[in-house]
Specification:
274 residues, alpha/beta, 60s Ribosomal Protein L30, Chain: A, Alpha/beta knot, seven-stranded parallel beta sheet, 11 helices, 12 strands, elongated
């Protein structure tokens, strides 16, 4: 494959490929640029391999010499791989990439909620719905739990962090790359589409009428609704749910981190045989 030494870079076309990897420290810039330019980044050898195995189309790679040696048999022959020492990679990207490997891939169009629902099997199913979760790390951690417990898909609200943002993909261990997910357009109106498809929407929240998780009898088709880190779910989202469920806590603690809460709730209501 075309290995290109960054320290000897002269071709303007190669400079354009490298733009995919610049300004990684600027989260606001990257979260605007990547969807607009139709790309996402996979970080680490393992996640790059998952992206390739899942059929995502690569644009280019940026790797250290050691990681290049690990990946050489996996990388497509017609896609440029820029190879450079860690210090040079850090100067270009703005971050210290301990894992030493980045891949830029063509971003697929997100599914609509209706299309995701059409793709699900009849009968028992599980979904997770995320409202306005701002931290990409939390989104990635939730998706890792989603994959671990056999959940069928994820729906994110219009203002939720990008599941394909580099940190989300990395924290999910690449599981987001083979998991169906959709971005809602009407919020919380799209919850009605789930209910029309036979899902009970269960809001994970604190309220006077909430049902303790251990006493909650999970229906065949269940969608857990999880809210943002600070304020939790909006009143409109809770009003759109069919039931409110809470995880009982010890005194003086009223809630878990949203990613931890998702793991507890999904384990308790799992379909997957363990």
């Amino acid at each position: 494959m075309p290995r290109i030494d960054l320290q000897e870079l002269t071709d303007p076309e190669h400079q354009q490929y490298l733009r995919d990897f610049t300004s990684l420290r600027d989260v606001q810039l990257r979260t605007r640029r990547e969807p607009a330019e139709g790309l996402f980044l996979a970080e680490s050898v393992e996640v790059i391999r998952r992206a390739l195995e899942s059929g995502y189309v690569p644009r280019s790679f940026l790797v250290s010499p050691h990681r290049y040696a690990e990946l050489i048999d996996d990388l497509p022959a017609d896609v440029p791989a820029f190879v450079a020492p860690s210090a040079v990679v850090e100067a270009l990207t703005g971050v210290d990439l301990h894992r030493g490997a980045l891949g830029s891939f063509v971003r697929p169009e997100p599914l609509s909620v209706a299309r995701l629902l059409e793709s699900l099997p009849a009968g028992p199913a599980r979904l997770v719905v995320l409202e306005d979760i701002a931290d990409a790390t939390n989104v990635g951690a939730i998706i890792r739990s989603v994959a671990a417990f056999g959940v069928d898909g994820v729906i994110v609200s219009p203002n939720c962090a990008d599941p394909l943002y580099r940190r989300s993909v990395r924290v999910s261990m690449g599981t987001v790359l083979h998991l169906p997910w959709a971005r809602a357009v009407s919020w919380p109106g799209d919850l009605a589409l789930l209910q029309d498809a036979g899902f009970t929407v269960a809001a994970l929240a604190l309220s006077d009428d909430s049902v303790p998780l251990g006493a909650f009898e999970a229906p065949e088709r269940l969608a857990f609704l999880l809210g943002t880190e600070g304020d939790g779910l909006s009143h409109r989202a809770v009003a759109g749910a069919d039931v409110v469920v809470r995880i009982p806590m010890a005194p003086r603690v009223d809630s878990l981190n949203v990613a931890a809460a998702s793991a507890v709730a999904l384990w308790e209501t799992r379909i997957l045989e363990q």
